[in-house]
Specification:
With 316 residues, the chain is an alpha/beta fold. The protein is 43% helix and 16% strand. The chain has helices at residues 2-16, 24-27, 43-50, 53-56, 69-77, 88-96, 146-157, 175-181, 192-199, 224-229, 231-250, 252-262, 267-272, 284-296, 306-309, and strands at 30-36, 59-65, 83-87, 101-109, 119-120, 136-139, 166-169, 186-187, 203-204, 216-223. The strands form three sheets. Strands 2-1-3-10-4 form a five-stranded mixed β-sheet, sandwiched between helices. Strands 7-6-8 form a three-stranded parallel β-sheet, covered by helices on one side. It has a two-stranded antiparallel ribbon with strand order 5-9. Strand 6 (136-139), helix 7 and strand 7 (166-169) form a beta-alpha-beta unit. The longest helix has 20 residues, at 231-250. It is globular.
C-alpha cells in the first residue's frame, strides 16, 4: 500500500510541475544552438535531425540560418549561439586576433573536383596567371579570403606579388555579370556560381585551384568556453554529425532533397550539381601551412599554431 501511495504521489508531483508523461527524457536533452551557412555543406545537420542521431546523443539542436562568416563569429562571441559554420580563413583570422574560437568539425575539403578557381570570359586574352599583371580580379570578400590566399600563392609562383593585380570585392551573384561587362578581367566564383560561369563558357586558368586543394571549405566552430564547459555535448554533436556524414555520402538523393527544401538554388542545378563527399577530419598539415602563409602575406597580425584554432577533440 505504501509503495502504491508513493507512486501516486510522484505522479501527482510530476503533473503539478507541468511535466507531461513521455517528456521527462526530453527534459534531459542539452540544447545546442547552431548558425548554419546560408548555402551548402549544412545538410548533415538536417540528416542528423531526421535520423535521430542528435536525440541519441542527448541533444536538442536548434538550427538557424546564419550570415557572413564574420557576422557568425561576432554572434558566437556575444554568446548568442553555441556553434557556427564559417570559413577556415575566417577562423584562423579570428584566432590570430585573440578571439577564443576553435574549429571543432570539418564539413568538406577543397576536393578533387574544383568548386572554385580563377576564370576569365570566353573572349579574354588572358591565358596564364602571368597575363594577370595590371588586371582586375573579382573576389568574394576581397583579398581577405581563402580565394585571396589562393591567388597570392599562385602569383608568387610566377614571380608576381599582390601589388601586380587589382583585387575587387564583389558579391557572389555579381561576379559573372561584372566580368561580362568588363568591370573586372577575371573572377574567382564559388560553388553554384563557379558552375554557372563554366556553363557560360568562361575559361579556367590552369594551376590556380591546386593552391588550396585539401584545405577545409566550410567548418563548424565553437567558443573555447563552450567546448570546455559542455565537453560532453560537443563530443555528442561531433559523433552525431559523423554518422550523418556517412549517411549523406551513401544517400546523395537525400542531400538534393534538403537542398530543395532549405535553399533557393535553381532546381536544375540541384538535380545535377556535383556533391562533394562530407568529411569530418581536417587535413591539418595543409591547413597549418595555409595559416603560416596567411601571416606571411600579411592577412593576419601574428603567426598561430594548430592548437590556437583547432579543438583538441576534433576528429583526426
Amino acid at each position: 500500500m505504501t509503495s502504491r501511495r508513493y507512486v501516486l504521489g510522484m505522479a501527482a508531483a510530476v503533473l503539478a510541475a507541468g511535466i507531461l508523461p513521455g517528456t521527462m527524457a526530453q527534459a534531459a536533452e542539452t540544447v545546442v544552438r547552431v548558425l548554419r551557412s546560408p548555402v551548402g555543406t549544412f545538410q548533415g545537420l538536417y540528416i542528423a535531425e531526421q535520423q535521430g542521431y542528435f536525440k541519441e546523443a542527448g541533444l536538442k539542436v536548434e538550427i538557424t540560418v546564419g550570415g557572413a562568416p564574420s557576422q557568425n563569429i561576432a554572434q558566437l562571441q556575444a554568446g548568442q549561439t553555441d556553434l557556427i559554420m564559417s570559413g577556415s580563413f575566417d577562423v584562423v583570422t579570428a584566432a590570430a586576433r585573440g578571439l577564443p574560437v576553435l574549429a571543432v568539425l570539418n564539413t568538406q575539403d577543397q576536393g578533387d573536383v574544383p568548386t572554385t578557381g580563377l576564370l576569365v570570359p570566353p573572349a579574354s586574352t588572358i591565358k596564364t596567371v602571368a597575363d594577370l599583371k595590371g588586371k582586375a580580379v573579382g573576389l568574394p570578400g576581397g583579398a581577405q579570403s581563402t580565394q585571396g590566399l589562393m591567388l597570392f600563392r599562385v602569383l608568387e609562383k610566377v614571380g608576381m606579388t599582390k601589388d601586380d593585380v587589382r583585387v575587387v570585392n564583389l558579391p557572389f551573384d555579381a561576379m559573372i555579370e561584372s566580368a561580362e561587362r568588363g568591370s573586372v578581367d577575371a573572377i574567382v566564383p564559388i560553388g553554384m556560381f563557379y558552375s554557372l560561369a563554366e556553363a557560360k563558357k568562361f575559361r579556367v586558368i590552369d594551376g590556380v585551384y591546386p593552391e588550396i586543394k585539401g584545405s577545409p571549405a566550410v567548418i563548424f566552430v565553437s567558443s573555447k568556453s563552450f567546448v570546455t564547459e559542455k565537453a560532453d555535448a560537443m563530443k555528442g554533436f561531433v559523433a552525431a554529425m559523423l554518422k550523418a556524414y556517412d549517411y549523406g555520402n551513401a544517400h546523395p538523393d537525400v542531400i538534393r532533397e534538403i537542398d530543395a527544401a532549405q535553399t533557393k538554388m535553381p532546381p536544375d542545378y540541384i538535380k545535377t550539381r556535383y556533391i562533394a563527399p562530407f568529411t569530418g577530419a581536417f587535413q591539418r598539415e595543409i591547413w597549418v601551412k595555409a595559416a603560416a602563409d596567411m601571416h606571411r602575406f600579411g592577412f593576419i597580425p601574428k603567426a598561430v599554431t594548430e592548437a590556437d584554432f583547432i579543438w583538441s577533440g576534433a576528429p583526426k
